[in-house]
Specification:
This protein is an all-alpha fold and about 210 residues long. The protein has one domain. It contains 10 helices and no strands. Helix 1 runs parallel beside helix 5 and helix 5 runs antiparallel to helix 6. It is globular and about 45 Å long. The N and C termini lie far apart (about 40 Å).
Length: about 210
């Protein structure tokens, strides 16, 4: 029974995570397809540039919630540790490769962050780290990449110390890997010195997303 429910929740997490709230709210509230504006991304950063901070905040919270919901359900139903990890990774993967928009999507930071915080609430402290990095460097992508690397590293160390479940640590690592993969074009631009800074007008085509 647990196995069936766990797999079903994993599938549900993927399709919940796949809902492209940036696209939905952009079209509904502004009549704008944000995939055709700015960086072309459907995440919070491009939404902020195109739709304004109020709508961008709503998109962030909804994307964050996509990660929180399936993990909370897995924990509430007392499913195995691997099911919690599966829910986290599936929700993040759904956000990044949404079947609703031809397997395209966002970078996974908000949804992956929501899933991670649902497992380890103290990871919300990394929000302060993100703010600090963006404040100093003006690079949102750099803050996202560093968070996706450092957060899982800390959790893995805790797992080896026996402080957290190993499967949960594996889930966090999976989420981090997805986020880094989705930022590969940003990494190239950071190395080349051509990455857009926060508040800077975006000139990249939709295929070169920066958020």
């Amino acid at each position: 029974m647990d196995v069936t429910l766990s797999i079903a929740l994993g599938l549900a997490a993927f399709f919940i995570g796949a809902v492209p709230w940036g696209l939905v709210l952009g079209k509904w509230l502004k009549g704008v397809d944000i995939r055709k504006s700015g960086s072309g991304a459907t995440g919070t950063t491009n939404s902020l540039r195109i739709l304004g901070w109020r709508i961008a905040l709503a998109i962030f919270l909804l994307d964050f919630g996509k990660g929180v919901l399936p993990v909370v359900l897995a924990r509430w139903w007392d499913l195995p540790d691997w099911a919690v990890a599966l829910a986290a990774v599936a929700a993040t993967a759904g956000h990044c490769w949404s079947p609703y928009i031809r397997m395209k999507g966002g970078k996974g930071m908000a949804t992956g962050g929501g899933a991670s915080v649902a497992m380890f609430p103290w990871l919300v402290l990394f929000l302060l780290f993100v703010i600090a990095v963006v404040w100093v460097t003006r690079y949102v992508s750099l803050a996202s990449i560093l968070t996706a690397l450092i957060g899982p590293t800390v959790v893995v160390i805790l797992a080896f110390m026996g402080k957290v479940p190993g499967w949960w640590a594996a889930g966090i690592v999976g989420v981090g890997i997805i986020i880094v993969i989705q930022h590969r074009s940003n990494i190239k631009r950071l190395l080349n010195g051509t990455e857009n800074k926060f508040g800077q007008r975006v000139s990249a085509p939709p295929s070169e997303q920066s958020a």
